Amino acid sequence: MSILGLTLDYGPYGFMDRFDPDFICNASDNSGRYSYQAQPAICRWNLVKLAEALAPELPSERADGIIDEYMDMYNRFYLENMRRKIGLLKKEEPEDEQLITELLQTMHNTGADFTNTFRCLSQIPCPIDGENEGDIIKQATQLLLARVLL
């Protein structure tokens, strides 16, 4: 991870086709330290190590305060991005986080392709005022099932 927060990888790398939160993209990571779901915690660990390196210039209480904010900031940013990714653009609902969690769990349970699932969702039209949402839900269900059954 660079000082800008960008992930760097110079080793053997693989891409996640079927969604698996335990997926390890680096073939040299035998312990799962850098699994998909571990990324937020590893980024926090990197920030702790950066703060330690900056200790002569960065007071520890200031560093601790910043690091303590990290997970909340990360979770807000992640939720905002996932909302956009699944097309929830106009209104935030308290259930959005649960919807995203259940979508990812369903993707994991069915072995759905990570990228193609979101591409598939982008083909589902948004209902217009007065339009029958039932028809769109039926269309969406058929589209998603056709992708899962491939």
Automatic annotation (TrEMBL):
Coiled-coil regions listed: none
UniProt entry keywords in alphabetical sequence: ATP-binding, Magnesium, Metal-binding, Nucleotide-binding, Nucleotidyltransferase, Transferase
Keyword Magnesium: yes
Obligatory cofactor(s): Mg(2+)
Pfam (any one): SelO
A GO term, aspect molecular function: nucleotidyltransferase activity
Nucleotide-binding in keyword set: yes
Superkingdom, taxonomy of origin: Eukaryota
Stated family: Belongs to the SELO family.
The protein, known as: Selenoprotein O
The organism of origin for this protein: Mugilogobius chulae (yellowstripe goby)
